[in-house]
Amino acid sequence: MEYAQFKIGESFKTATGTWRCTDVGTRTIAAIHIAYADGSPVCADPSWFNGPPYAVVEEVFDAYDFGGCYTMDDPEPF
């Protein structure tokens, strides 16, 4: 994905599963992991994905990570 494709509240995929963008910074984005690669949720209580603040850890993605991110519309890259 390109930096401009990340939007707060929208989901994207990586090799580790599905993520939801929670913040777009100047050169980075923050996201929460919402589902593993097999589709199972990261936690059983969906209220943990409500925020901010979030009950799950927000991870930071930078320009080096964007190449491993895919929109939800992309065909399965893995």
Automatic annotation (TrEMBL):
Source superkingdom: Bacteria
Protein name, as recorded: Uncharacterized protein
Lineage of the organism: Bacteria, Pseudomonadati, Pseudomonadota, Acidithiobacillia, Acidithiobacillales
